[in-house]
């Protein structure tokens, strides 16, 4: 397309170029921004096509072409012109003979001249809309040939008409199709159409972007005029906002919706997976390939330091007390509404600082009973694996390591040793291609008095790591009954039972998958009789100290069971017109039971002389009661909706752990068979009592106001600080409801909104405001006995963390809703942070006291775009979102000796050094370590020795304090674990029942500490080393990347083990999250099968990832702690899923 015809102005093009130049972000970020900007340009061009000016049409007709045709069919001329100019032709089938031949010769003629030369002799006229040529009969015949031509002998019913909008304006380009066929036409520039029908009772389907579809039964009519009604589904759509619903057009806060179509579009194990990449401002991180679907969710950044950052999850009105979100069957979910700003979240007060997720499950509808059956069958494979040294490379590494320390290398230079002939692939040995099966059956229907929806589901997943699997069984029953005209009762009941066989995971280098990587390739897993080997026995040379990882993988039994029952009963009573009372009683019960047995064995030097049984049980019970009054009133130009309510929640948590040892026989693997026992347990009761109110006011449907207040009382705080009040207010202006905006071309909806409010966070341990006693051991006489001692120092002044948030947003819809944008800016200030302040060990307590100190800030932009790029027989839509977040700690207060408080994260083994440090002026959990700058080389011996007693071949770090020696002053802040930019883009293309969708998600601006390299990329051969170590430093290979070979101890190994940027990697990524290919069987086929609908879908998940990160997954983060985030401890590997699903409704 010519630049002058592009809907973007020259100024916009210049702005896009400047953005490419001036945005200084990491490489992948710049690539993503470039892709995003160019994608937006393409979308804007496509979406603007229906509003193209007449000058664009004139340019098309003026285009010069050359064509020569001698006695060829007219359709061939159409194909040639399409190839030369891109124009397409639309016409009725009886307009000319099917095999009519024409001749024309044109050299450097305009398209208009060529069209005239072809059609005038045939008595055919035309009009042009963009690149579409509409053919029609001329009002007066031009040639006798045209006058004498008659349609085919088969009888046609010629129907003419006109399509207009509700203001009597003509609608050009409306698609008109005979239902159940491919016969159709489009309206011309006057909205008129002509179409031939084969049957007098044909049904015409009229469709046009931005308008509701309409069907018309012809019934012997020869003329039909149709009025299409504007489609305002996006504005009339109702979203859940907490204790009620609201139309999108009336929203004043920031709310995102994940629709049923998006949730059900691909096989997922948890609802968090369905959210990923779908909503702006919501960062969903898959922390590994765990079979129960382990994810972390943050809404608008990190809102706390030592507290939780998880949003509140509410299912059908019940706030969930504990996790285990995989117990919620995604097949039952019809929508997920995400409340982000203070105006939307304040109705949940003390628990809403991190956002709120409102999950709505499927309910019945009035009508006949429908049965829906779905089956998903697929396979999962590891999406990636590590490359390690071969046996020969590992042998040479041993030789050089022993030479560098003056040790005997004979055992490693003896090529006749059988060990050097073995090359075991431990990763392949311990993993597999796994099967995944999911089934669900749903029944729904009802009458005008009662509706129901019942479903059952089953998920069966093998693990890609052998001896791990996951099974889940679920049911749901939702009912709605109208007892009296004014009284409606509804109930929700769901249950889930999960059984998972787990492995030893997430321990540094010691998890099951990590142990595969550390096992040497020259060792054998089985002996000649097929028995597990000990890898190294007394008779073998000393090649390392690793046990056979298959012993720990296959022998222990680790079984986790989780059961959840979630239910509620609700009554709604219409008291008088406009006034409604609602009351509900709900409960959430979660039962956990874990069993593990470590068996007796003796394999070589490795053994366990006694068996051990551990049983952990837990119970979380949450009771909820709500009572609300809602008043709705419209008068003159005013609309008022008032909600007031009262809520109580009671929580009970019980836990117990019993470990027994002593069995000598693996057949006696129950707790009762043991002889020595150790037991611990706890029970906590807590509660929350709340009152709340919300006012929604609108004037003339264009000026909107929402005011909310909630007051919470919590048992987590002392008597003087139990209660907190959380108010918010928001306003919005629907500009398009103003007279001056009604006739702006292309403008469909424009709304400006702003909000400010206060929410809270009470995520801390129960009863931290009092000093608690707990078990403690001490020496009495010659024995160690158990007594009681203070566990903490109580703080009666503890109060809520609070989050003050400002939001400014814009909702824009163009081209009759074909193109819509949402843009938000937020500024969230969290203060009174709940932080544990370190105190000296001499205090005698086990826990540091929790105090309210400090503050942090999150700011960012959120942008989302939805567009219908192409419509008609071929449909193409795009959904895109991108978000930014800047997190900074403003204040942490002082420590016990008056210095600025610094909060360290966890420490890495071997070096015993921290990776993260939270301080004022930096993001939460910022990475803090030495900066790796290369390898000491020959000729630098003196400086190396002075700096850290190093030698050539050792790692070199930046001397930031310029004192010539290595010390703590050389450490620096080198990045953050949370992304600065993230988002997703989904494209869906449909044609005649076929549909293809492509979902990408991305993140940029964060880093990941690759702990496996910290262990297995040091050129220390006593663990299997990664392939990159093959380039280790020698005098003849002076690399600047890998240190010289060394033994398990010594200064070289010490330096290689230091926490440094050598193991900190860029975690930017762009991932093809999902590809879906589906086919909806035609109406004729499903009727023959006596079905209502049928769909076949092929799906692939996690197909590929573009990243510089060298680990298995750039999203892997093994720690839930915000202070120790961004650490890859080699969790359960991410998988690729290839699946086929079939869904039928009858």
Automatic annotation (TrEMBL):
The chain crosses the membrane at residues 27-46. One of its GO terms (cellular component) is cell outer membrane. Residues 518-900 form the TonB-dependent receptor-like beta-barrel domain. SUPFAM superfamilies: Carboxypeptidase regulatory domain-like, Porins. The keyword Transmembrane helix applies. Belongs to the TonB-dependent receptor family. This is SusC/RagA family TonB-linked outer membrane protein. The keyword Transport applies. It is found in: Cell outer membrane. Keywords: Cell outer membrane, Membrane, TonB box, Transmembrane, Transmembrane beta strand, Transmembrane helix, Transport. It is a multi-pass membrane protein. InterPro entries: Beta-barrel_TonB (IPR000531), Beta-barrel_TonB_sf (IPR036942), CarboxyPept-like_regulatory (IPR008969), Plug_dom (IPR012910), Plug_dom_sf (IPR037066), TonB-dep_OMP_SusC/RagA (IPR023996), TonB-dep_OMP_SusC/RagA_CS (IPR023997), TonB-dep_rcpt-like (IPR039426). Residues 248-356 form the TonB-dependent receptor plug domain.
């Amino acid at each position: 397309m010519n630049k002058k015809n592009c809907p973007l102005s020259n100024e916009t093009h210049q702005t896009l170029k400047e953005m490419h130049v001036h945005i200084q972000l990491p490489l992948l970020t710049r690539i993503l921004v470039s892709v995003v900007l160019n994608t937006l340009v393409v979308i804007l061009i496509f979406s603007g096509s229906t509003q193209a000016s007449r000058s664009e049409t004139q340019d098309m007709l003026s285009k010069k072409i050359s064509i020569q045709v001698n006695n060829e069919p007219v359709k061939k001329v159409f194909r040639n012109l399409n190839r030369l100019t891109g124009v397409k032709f639309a016409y009725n089938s009886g307009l000319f003979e099917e095999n009519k031949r024409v001749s024309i010769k044109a050299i450097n003629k305009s398209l208009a001249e060529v069209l005239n030369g072809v059609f005038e002799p045939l008595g055919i006229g035309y009009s042009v809309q963009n690149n579409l040529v509409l053919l029609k009969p001329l009002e007066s015949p031009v040639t006798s040939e045209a006058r004498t031509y008659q349609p085919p002998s088969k009888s046609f019913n010629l129907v003419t008409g006109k399509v207009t909008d509700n203001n009597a304006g003509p609608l050009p380009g409306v698609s008109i199709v005979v239902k159940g066929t491919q016969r159709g036409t489009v309206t011309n520039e006057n909205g008129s159409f002509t179409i031939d029908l084969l049957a007098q009772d044909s049904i015409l389907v009229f469709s046009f972007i931005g308008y509701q579809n309409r069907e018309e039964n012809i019934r012997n009519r020869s003329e039909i005029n149709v009025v299409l009604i504007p489609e305002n589904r996006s504005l009339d759509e109702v979203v859940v906002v907490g204790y009620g619903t609201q139309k999108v057009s009336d929203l004043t806060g920031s709310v995102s919706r994940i629709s049923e179509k998006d949730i059900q579009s691909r096989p997922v194990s948890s609802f968090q997976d369905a959210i990923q990449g779908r909503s702006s401002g919501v960062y969903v991180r898959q922390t590994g390939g765990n079979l129960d679907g382990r994810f972390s969710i943050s809404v608008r950044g990190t809102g706390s330091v030592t507290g939780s950052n998880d949003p509140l999850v509410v299912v059908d009105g019940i706030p969930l007390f504990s996790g285990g979100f995989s117990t919620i069957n995604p097949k039952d979910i019809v929508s997920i509404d995400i409340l982000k700003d203070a105006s939307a979240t304040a109705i949940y007060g003390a628990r809403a600082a991190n956002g709120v997720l409102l999950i709505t499950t499927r309910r019945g509808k009035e009508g006949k009973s429908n049965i829906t059956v779905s089956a998903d069958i697929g396979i999962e494979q590891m999406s990636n694996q590590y490359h390690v040294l071969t046996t020969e490379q590992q042998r040479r590494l041993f030789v050089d390591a022993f030479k560098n320390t003056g040790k005997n290398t004979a055992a490693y230079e003896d090529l006749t040793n059988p060990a050097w002939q073995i090359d075991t692939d431990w990763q392949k040995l311990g993993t597999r291609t796994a099967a995944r099966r999911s089934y669900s059956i749903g029944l729904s229907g009802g009458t005008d008095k009662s509706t129901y929806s019942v479903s059952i589901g089953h998920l069966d997943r093998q693990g890609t790591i052998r001896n791990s699997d996951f099974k889940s069984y679920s049911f749901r029953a939702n009912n709605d009954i109208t007892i009296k005209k004014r009284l409606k009762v509804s109930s929700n009941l769901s249950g889930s039972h999960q059984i998972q066989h787990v492995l030893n995971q997430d321990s540094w280098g010691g998890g099951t998958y990590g142990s595969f990587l550390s096992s040497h390739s020259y060792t054998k897993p089985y002996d000649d009789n097929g028995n597990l080997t000990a890898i190294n026995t007394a008779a073998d040379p000393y090649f390392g100290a690793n046990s056979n990882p298959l012993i720990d993988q296959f022998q222990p039994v680790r079984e986790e069971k989780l059961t959840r029952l979630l239910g509620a009963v609700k009554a709604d009573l219409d008291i008088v017109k406009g006034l409604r009372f609602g009351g509900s009683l709900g409960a959430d019960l979660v039962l956990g039971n874990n069993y593990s047995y470590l068996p007796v064995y003796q394999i070589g030097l490795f053994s366990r002389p006694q068996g051990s049984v551990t049983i952990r049980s837990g119970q979380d019970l949450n009771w909820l009661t709500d009572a609300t009054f809602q008043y709705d009133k419209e008068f003159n130009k005013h609309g008022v909706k008032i909600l007031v309510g009262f809520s109580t929640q009671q929580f009970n948590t019980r836990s117990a752990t019993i470990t027994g040892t002593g069995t000598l026989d693996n057949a006696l693997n129950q707790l009762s068979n043991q002889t020595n026992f150790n037991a611990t347990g706890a029970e906590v009761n807590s509660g929350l009592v709340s009152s709340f109110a919300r006012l929604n006011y609108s004037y003339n449907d264009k000026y909107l106001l929402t005011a909310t207040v909630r007051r919470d009382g919590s048992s987590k705080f002392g008597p003087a600080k139990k209660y907190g009040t959380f108010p918010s207010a928001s306003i919005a202006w629907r500009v398009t409801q103003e007279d001056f905006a009604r006739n702006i071309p292309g403008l469909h909806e424009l709304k400006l909104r702003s909000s400010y409010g206060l929410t809270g966070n009470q995520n801390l341990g129960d009863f931290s405001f009092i000093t608690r006693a707990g078990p403690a051991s001490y020496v009495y006489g010659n024995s160690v006995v158990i007594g009681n001692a203070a566990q903490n120092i109580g703080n009666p002044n503890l109060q809520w963390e609070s989050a003050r948030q400002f939001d400014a947003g814009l909702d824009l819809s163009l081209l009759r809703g074909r193109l819509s944008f949402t843009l938000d800016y937020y500024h969230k200030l969290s203060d009174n942070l709940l932080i544990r302040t370190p105190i000296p060990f001499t205090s005698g307590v086990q826990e540091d006291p929790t105090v309210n100190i400090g503050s942090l800030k999150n700011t960012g932009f959120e942008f989302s775009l939805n567009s219908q790029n192409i419509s008609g027989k071929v449909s193409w839509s795009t959904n895109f979102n991108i978000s930014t977040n800047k997190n900074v700690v403003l204040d942490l207060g002082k420590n016990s000796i008056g210095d600025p408080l610094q909060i360290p994260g966890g420490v890495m083994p071997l070096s015993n050094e921290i990776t993260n440090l939270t301080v004022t002026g930096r993001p939460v959990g910022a990475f803090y370590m030495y900066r790796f700058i290369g390898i000491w080389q020959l000729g630098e011996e003196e400086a190396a020795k002075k700096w850290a007693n190093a030698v050539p071949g050792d790692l070199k770090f930046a001397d930031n304090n310029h004192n010539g020696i290595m010390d703590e002053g050389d450490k620096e802040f080198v990045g953050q674990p949370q992304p600065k930019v993230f988002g997703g883009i989904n494209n869906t293309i449909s044609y005649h029942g076929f549909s293809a969708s492509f979902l990408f998600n991305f993140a940029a601006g964060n880093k990941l500490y690759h702990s496996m390299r910290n262990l297995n990329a040091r050129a220390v051969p006593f663990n299997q080393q990664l392939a990159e170590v093959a380039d280790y430093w020698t005098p003849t290979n002076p690399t600047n990347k890998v240190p010289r070979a060394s033994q398990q101890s010594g200064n070289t190994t010490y330096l290689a083990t230091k926490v440094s940027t050598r193991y900190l990697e860029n975690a930017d990524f762009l991932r093809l999250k999902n590809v879906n290919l589906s086919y909806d069987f035609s109406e004729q086929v499903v009727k023959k099968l006596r079905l209502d609908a049928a769909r076949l879908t092929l799906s692939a998940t996690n197909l590929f990832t573009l990243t510089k990160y060298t680990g298995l997954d750039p999203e892997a983060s093994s720690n839930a702690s915000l202070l120790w985030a961004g650490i890859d401890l080699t969790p359960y590997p991410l998988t690729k899923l290839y699946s086929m699903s079939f869904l039928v409704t009858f």
